[in-house]
Amino acid sequence: MPIKGKSFQSLRLRTGPSRLRVSCAAKPETVNKVCDIVRKQLALPADSEVTGESKFATLGADSLDTVEIVMGLEEEFGISVEEESAQGIATVQDAADLIEQLIEKK
């Protein structure tokens, strides 16, 4: 990408698939625990499909349910979730990733 006649290789726009992908996905055990807590908090049947990609809203959670889910996660994992962080949680995977980040900081 030229700027004032100079070309900067690091700023070159690339098209096509990216070769480097950073992922900080939580461990499967953490995701499974979060799924169980979500099922319990939302009173879902044990055989209902809840996965990392499940959105709380799609599962029927309103804002109060989401607060209760976060409280259940705090109790289960012995963590404290800041309000700003809690507002960014939309899926089971989001919750599991945040939990592992908070546990690492302990």
Describe this structure in words.
- By secondary structure, the chain is mainly α.
- The chain is built from four helices and two strands, in the order E-E-H-H-H-H.
- Strands 1-2 form a two-stranded antiparallel sheet.
- Strand 1 and strand 2 form a beta hairpin.
- Helix 1 packs across helix 2 and helix 1 crosses helix 4.
- The longest helix has 15 residues.
- The chain is globular and about 35 Å long.
- Keywords: Chloroplast, Fatty acid biosynthesis, Fatty acid metabolism, Lipid biosynthesis, Lipid metabolism, Phosphopantetheine, Phosphoprotein, Plastid, Transit peptide.
- It is found in: Plastid, Chloroplast.
Shape estimate: globular
Quaternary assembly = single chain
User: What is the N-to-C succession of helices and strands?
Assistant: EEHHHH
The largest sheet, given as strand count, sense and whether it forms a barrel, is: 2 strands, antiparallel
Estimated radius of gyration: 19 Å
Q: State the total count of DSSP E strands.
A: 2
Distance between the termini: 43 Å
Quote the average pLDDT.
Answer: 85
Number of helices: 4
With strands numbered from the N-terminus, the spatial order across the biggest sheet is 1-2
Uncertain regions spanning at least 5 consecutive residues: 8-12
> What is the percentage of strand-forming residues?
under 5%
Q: Helix coverage percent of residues? A: 40-55%
- How does the helix and strand content classify structurally? mainly alpha
